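Page 47, continued from p. 46.
Same chain as before, 511 aa.
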Amino acid sequence: MNEQYDIIIVGSGAGGATLALKLADSGKKILVIERGGYIPVEKENWDSEEVFVKNRYTTNENWLDKKEKPFQPGQHYNVGGNTKLYGAALFRMRENDFNEVRHHGGISPKWPISYTDLKPYYLEAEQLYSVHGKRGVDPTEPFEENPFPFGPLPHEPRIQEVITDLKEFGLHPFPLPIGVNPTNAKKANAPFVLDRFDGYPDPTEHKADAHVNALRKALEYENVTLMTQTKVTKLLTNASGSEIKEVHAECEGRILKLQADLIVLSCGAINSAALLLKSANSQFPNGLSNSSDVVGRHYMFHNNSAMLAISKEENQTKFGKTFGINDYYYGSDDFEFPLGHIQMLGKSDKIQISGDSPIPAPGFTFELLAKHSVDFWMASEDLPDPNNRISIVKQQIKIEYTPNNLEGHKRLKEKLKFALEHSGKFSHYFPKSIYFSKDMPLAAVAHQNGTVRFGNDPKTSALDIHCRSHDIKNLFVVDGSFFVSSSAVNPALTIMAMALRVGDYIKNQVL
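Result:
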């Protein structure tokens, strides 16, 4: 099968779907290729055992760690990509994150663009993804004169108590910017109550994900087509290596050979790098678009911890993911380097805790832990290291990763525990490892970034500042790959904003 398109976008997640919508009104013939299918609407969508214990919606493929030991990654192949199961916390990077930042463990490098370059696209992305929030409360947020598209989500009673206690302690909790669709296609007579959201697919489509908010709208245009259950296996260049001339893919046992004037990879930082490496040829023996030797290197996914804080009071909250804390983002009174970011997680239940928890505290069962817990997520910046990398071993993805810059994260956990101990009635603290697939941090790939970095110098970057390959003029990479540093906030909104910026560039400068 041979077919010609104007633009092929590989991947339908935060980058691919957003870009498809941005380009949809161009009139160009656009194909979006997704290796998975649609997540079915079924009762298992909200079943903790199916989602977190049996990994119903997670790929069953194995990757290799640095010792070449197989592990199952927390990777989702489906329409909408990983956004179908994300928590929809949609943060702008802090303005200073675009500059060089000194950390305890080293230097976070300066980006080749500034916050100002992305600012209008951040606003556009917030509108597209129905972000609920409030300006001027987060002490680190970059300035924006326009309000969020929607006001902040309400805090349930137990969460409001925690916020009040933390404010009295001296911290500045703020409403999390969350992507929630205020209405959806299904009509109901009764109000909808947000519940299982963070880590679950949302059959009600209130979660603002890339499928619902971008791809579905793009597919309303006759010139945009989606091909599902189709895995791109290789990119072929012309004889000189200056252009991609053909995309090879597998679909239901068939080999497809597809052509387009422009090729955009939006497979996620791991799989985009892997596809470039697998497509090595005589012009690019180390992988396509890799004359700089950076493809696959500098892999980052944050230093992450999830924690259950246990108190005597029951927590009957259904949707607790409504506030964050950035008081320690740039440092603390006793530590001059950045610590990181704190936000709430979705409410745990006994199945999630029993699946990956340490032995309960004396007097607590898993059910009691779940009833009395408040759930926190902490993220700190990991630094780009060329030896933290994606490579291919016998056509299998291998991730070599050694953690770095851990002191700030260690102190962030201590700061949160101290604040909770001295502001409320919390008495026990447990790590919550469900997102780490049974305590294997390497498997937590939700915040993956950095493997096909962008920049002005072709010797030290694979992409230019519009995510266009330095080496191959009709190739773009639009996902977390382009990041040169990870900051300490969720990367999704930055990927979406960059997709919108690249879409403008393609429409105005390329087509």
